[in-house]
Structures are given as structure tokens and as C-alpha cells.
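Example record

The entry below shows one chain as it appears in the dataset: sequence first, then C-alpha cells.
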Amino acid sequence: MQVERRLNVLSQLEYEDDANGKINLMSTKMMETRYYEGCGREGPIRCIFLGEFHPVAGPKISCQFPEDYISKEVFDSISAYIIPKPQIQKCTMTINALGHKIVGYPIRIDNPRYERNVYLFNLCFVCDSWSKTVQYEPVVKKLGEHL
């Protein structure tokens, strides 16, 4: 909706040019090519995974469906955002990287029964990088807090 509104506004804008008089700033067709196909539309959930901090191995995906949708290489490059520092835990976060948009809500549970006295995890939804994911944020938060 916001993208469509922006396209309509930009296609109607004109500005004054000394040599050529009035010219269109951008046509709607040119503006559409600057966005990904389906930009701003709700996209399906492509994968759900549980990332956790293992006391020996460090950040890892302990469970995901479908299997191997997020490769080890991709996860290793974004693991600092999946299992973040304490300052940004219990905050809904969206990571758009490497062709994926990942929505998560990192959780930290302090308890002496865990190794290192803490359990860090993040239940994440993975969508296409162009899709709108704001509708999944309350679901991810609720699931994370429930676990």
C-alpha cells in the first residue's frame, strides 16, 4: 500500500529544469523497476527455525523446517543478529540479508540449571527478502515468550 502510494505521488511530481522546462521526475514504469517483484506484498513463510547458543559449539540452528533451508554458511554470517547481545534481546527484529528476510524475537533465560547459567534462543520465521513481514512480528513474539 505504501509503495503504491509512493509510486502514484512520484509519477505525478514535476520539477523545473532551466533548459527543458517542465519534465517528469520519474514515470510510474521507471519507478516500478527499482523495486523487487512483489515488494511490499505479504509473502509466505518459507522456513521456521530455532536458533540457540550452545555452550560449546556457539550459535547454531537446532531445528528447522524445511530441513537445510538456511545453510550453515548463511547462518554463520548472520548468527550475531540471531543470538544478539543482551541489550537488544526481547525486541522484535527483522534481518534482511542474503536473499532472506528473517523475523525473530531473541530470548534470554537466566537460571543456574543451564550451563553458563543462561539459555539464549530465537525462534525465527524466514520469508522472501521482498515480502512484507510486519504481520508476523506479534506471532514470533508470542511464540518466543511461550517457549
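Notes for this example: The CA atoms of residues 54 and 60 lie 7 Å apart. The longest helix spans residues 2-12.
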